[in-house]
Amino acid sequence: MKVNKQYCGTTAKGDLYLISLENEKGTSVEILNYGAIIKSFKVKAADGKEVDIVLGFDNVDEYFSKEYLSNYPYFGAVIGRYANRVKGGKFKIDGKDYQIAQNQNGDCLHGGIEGFDKKVFEVIGYTALPNPTVTLRYISSDGEEHFPGNLDLYITFELNNENELSYEFKATTDAPTAVNITHHSYFNLDGGATTIGEHLLTINADNYLEQDSNYVVTGNLIPIASTAHDFRTERTINRDMDPEEGYDQSFVIANPGGLALAAKAKSKETGVQLNVFTTEPVVHLYCGKYIPEIKGKNGVKYGPFHAFCLETQVHPNAINIPSLPDTILRPGSVYSTRTVYKVSNGNQG
């Protein structure tokens, strides 16, 4: 079991560090304290070769390039203070109206103009035993992107010998505020060079959430039976997928409670399988329609549909829909969620 912290340079927001976690099975993960980005997630394929299953860049500097930021897809970053879209960038808490940033067709997307994905987190601590872990901290100040309250957020990543990479969010506030945090890793279990249509996918959901024309959740549940969204039994992603749109949809996890299975994905080429477990009630499937044509790791050219995301969270826009779960965090309460990525290749657990 190994952990290593490497200095990567300094920005106006603080020093950059890359923390590497490695278990005894040869699985390794690199976490950047900028955006809490999962920079790499390397596992053994069925033939024993190493495959990096997340999109991103070889060099840290590339996450700051104009080419990347001008067509920004949030590669591998934490998303907050509020994931996905908030209708009109508006919400109400205790009778008071709040207008947060409107950065996507008049709505607020992924926390606003500069969300947690572009923040430098403090490296609180890291350890190799009993499992490699790292804990990051970011304090989001009152009024940031016009959200109320100071939010004190901790993220702990852990890689164990069961080939499980977990991340846990914990946050507190000094004033009532809206919170719904997720992580935006882009997965390609073939290593990123090809599109993901032939990946096999299962989603543990009986319903998905209706969206308006701007992809904002309305609050209505739609049964997935006999629709293109029915992934209850394993099938390829592209079997019923609109080839122009892909999928960009929130699925309500069946029988949530505790740490529940949300989804499973598998590569026919490498044999790598990814199981996603979470304490959250929703998993959002996004198939990368807007991934820019850009050079990624090892000179591989990325583009639309070169990866999928399985973003665990509370129902998007829930802050505006009383019938959906409460996403108001209040002083004295702790926001706490946990998601686990378990990888295997048919030869190892």
TrEMBL record:
EC numbers on record: 5.1.3.3
Identify the SUPFAM superfamilies for this entry.
Galactose mutarotase-like
Location of the active site: H184, E311
Cofactor(s) it depends on: Ca(2+)
Question: Residues that bind beta-D-galactose, according to the entry?
Answer: N84, R85, H184, S185, Y186, D248
Any GO BP annotation: glucose metabolic process
Q: Which PANTHER family match?
A: ALDOSE-1-EPIMERASE, GALACTOSE MUTAROTASE
| Complex formation | Monomer.
- According to UniProt, the name of this protein is Aldose 1-epimerase
